[in-house]
Design goal:
The chain is α/β, with parallel strands linked by helices. The chain contains 12 helices and 17 strands.
Length: 353
């Protein structure tokens, strides 16, 4: 098959200490991944500069067997186009009719005009966030693990003065550590709990699923676990220095658990890390970006692993490549990829019905 690997161009404005903007620097295939596909007889068309932000030069792709092409060619030559971010209207126009596009699509929260444009072109749209089977989603799991491990780094920076209240996550002897409340005990929530505990914070993990909390208690001993109720939510949010949104419903919009009234009870200068923003966000005040509202610093950056593009690109390739290597002439013949399909040759699948 012919694969297209375009360069990502998504950017989001942020606040200090993250600079003026964060760009999407990940790439779906590293040169090692291209080498594996090329060895199977597949052709890979890589846009020049596609791997630069992740530390993979064009020469490495060329040595691996890729053909370096223009932006337009990377889209139009690909029977399967491998992206990271959801394609824009402009990028959909560049895709060949009937092609397959794979990315973190999150079409449940995409603009309807974009979905209709993809359907009108007869595209097969496969979301990495849904790829897998039997409840296992290896690509999403890898990104969730990265986001969770990044959480203390992000929170620590946002708590620093002058933009934050000047709080040290770990505290000091005689000075209590920061209180971190995590909503959601899935892969991301558990990874965040382990990382915050390692940073010396006090960690509270809430979920409505008791087995998930039992797993969290095994993985993150030292974290306080609690079944979520409205009264507990109000109490825990009220004392949190850091509030982490780690709730996810695969293929669906994230339920809004945090109202403006509830967030108004938080400590001034507190931090909300809304990792659910890819699927709409966990709070009424959440929107893509890094900003301050209600006296709270909101970190609502979609696809947080973009902050570590080299590591994340290696993880993407490691989890995606086993499925790509099973391809012959149709990605839908691979059950795990079919499971991730929002669109099948332009027809809406179960995830959009």
């Amino acid at each position: 098959m012919d694969f297209g690997l375009p360069k990502e161009r998504a950017r989001l404005k942020t606040l200090p200490p993250f600079g003026e903007e964060v760009r999407e620097g990940r790439v779906a295939l590293t040169p090692q991944g291209v080498r594996e596909l090329s060895a199977r007889g597949h052709r890979v068309y890589v846009e020049r500069g596609a791997g630069e932000a992740a530390g993979f030069p064009d020469a490495a792709y060329e040595e691996a067997g890729a053909r370096l092409v223009s932006r337009e060619e990377a889209f139009r030559r690909g029977e399967v186009v491998l992206k990271v971010a959801r394609p824009t209207q402009e990028e959909v126009a560049l895709l060949r009719p009937g092609a397959a596009v794979m990315a973190f699509l999150h079409l449940a929260v995409a603009e309807s005009a974009l979905v209709e444009a993809m359907a009108a072109k007869g595209l097969t749209a496969i979301g990495y966030e849904l790829v897998g089977n039997e409840g296992k989603r290896p690509v999403l799991k890898a990104m969730s693990e990265i986001a969770g491990r990044l959480a203390p780094q992000l929170a620590g920076r946002l708590l620093e003065a002058p933009t934050g209240p000047g709080v040290l996550l770990s505290g000091l002897p005689g000075i209590p550590p920061a209180d971190v409340v995590i909503l959601g005990a899935g892969t991301l929530g558990r990874a965040a709990a382990r990382a915050f505990l390692g940073a010396g914070a006090s960690v509270y993990l809430l979920d409505k699923d008791l087995p998930a909390l039992e797993e969290a208690a095994r993985e993150a001993p030292g974290a306080v676990t609690a079944l979520v109720t409205q009264s507990r939510l109000e109490r825990y949010v009220g004392f949190a220095d850091v509030l982490v949104g780690a709730v996810a419903v695969p293929g669906e919009k994230t339920p809004v658990l945090l109202s403006r009234e509830l967030l108004a009870r938080m400590r001034k200068g507190a931090v909300l890390l809304d990792f659910a923003i890819d699927q709409g966000g966990i709070a009424e005040t959440s929107r893509p970006g890094v900003y301050q509202e209600l006296g709270i610093t909101h970190f609502c950056l979609p696809n947080v692993p973009a902050l570590v593009p080299r590591t994340a690109s290696h993880a993407l390739t490691a989890t995606l490549l086993p499925f790509l290597l099973q391809l012959e002439d149709d990605p839908l013949r691979v059950p795990e990829l079919r499971q991730g399909a929002y669109l099948l040759l332009g027809q809406k699948g179960g995830h959009l019905e």
